[in-house]
Amino acid sequence: DGSSKVCRLRKSIYGLKQASRIWNQKLDLVLQSFGLTQSKFDSCVYFKIDGKSMLIVAVWVDDLLIFSNDRKLKKQVKLRLTRSFKMTDLGEAKSVLGFQLTRDRQAKRIWISQQHYIEEMLKRFHMDAANPVTTPMSNSEKFSKNQAPQTADERERMRKIPYQEAIGSLLFAAQVSRPDIAFAISSLSRFNNNPGMAHWTGVKRVFRYLRGTSSYKLQFDGLKAGPIHGYCDADWASDPDERRSVTGYIFVKCNGPISWCTKRQPTVALSTTEAEYMAMSSAAQEGLWLRGLSEEIEQSSQIPTQIFCDNQGARNLALNGAYQPRTKHIDVRHHFLRERIQAKLLAFTYIPTNRMVADSLTKALDVEKFSACIRCQGLRK
């Protein structure tokens, strides 16, 4: 009626800014009332361990994945959830949040794929009929701010190109199931604010690579369930604009990748050793988090988490706390490595560069090296 009145709600309703938080609090109370414990390392993971029986619930807003080795316990939790919420049981997980899960129970293998998502993305950007290429980025390519539009006509032309939308779509694939495109997308995403045609050509090359590899999937082998281990690498001063180095790391469990990252380092490194040392620091942080999450659910490990690196100088710097004139300026936050090594939580082991699994996360490689690298990362056709 035009009067300035407000309606006081007695409970939350869908669409309010507080709704998602209140829903999460409600779900948390219900799950914990079943005897599940919320993980200290990932607030979206709940678990219950009762002797040899184990149950894990992974939460994504109102989608739940339930894992258990005890069918009776899993059935009890499902029944209690249906009493608390209006819930649909979709059965065995096959399609979740844009990716597909397939299993071979006899061989104890699981595959994760985003083939449907990738094929739809290629259609959306009119790249579904493009000629495939064998790598997502040419090993002779270096993207720079100097390739940004220089004239008004060039800027107007780039405004009509969905560059940011394409990068966002590709980032989702790179983060979920495609570590093979992670470096290329990380490099191209730096130019979101002012991309040029050279950058757009780089994006289209990634699309062309996905056109020929849309069926690639991550493979996890339950018969090779050893401890989590990682690989870390760096490419010194590879950024042509600011001369910052690139960090890349990947962690593996059951012969498949469970976490990977490629990013520019926050400061300029003065040497290859310094760049590798900072990469080891980043990998150590992720390794400690994965170790904590794993030990929270499984039995605590007395064995240090193994991280492989290919720089002897950086490894010696981490192991030896003695004064070094050439490295005395390195930020103290990177030196926590020594403390974690002494506590036997981490161990850094040298491997040759030709066996470095994280190599494709720091630089563009030729076809032969790239193919070998992504196979070691757990990608299968």
UniProtKB/TrEMBL annotation:
Protein origin, superkingdom:
Eukaryota
Do you know which SUPFAM superfamilies this protein is assigned to? DNA/RNA polymerases
Quote the Pfam families the UniProt record gives. Answer: RVT_2
Q: Which residues form a coiled coil?
A: none
One biological process term from GO is:
DNA biosynthetic process
Indicate the segments forming the Reverse transcriptase Ty1/copia-type domain, all copies. 3-138
Annotated PANTHER family: GAG-POL-RELATED RETROTRANSPOSON, REVERSE TRANSCRIPTASE TY1_COPIA-TYPE DOMAIN-CONTAINING PROTEIN
**What name does this protein carry?**
Retrovirus-related Pol polyprotein from transposon TNT 1-94
Output the lineage of the source organism: Eukaryota, Metazoa, Ecdysozoa, Arthropoda, Hexapoda
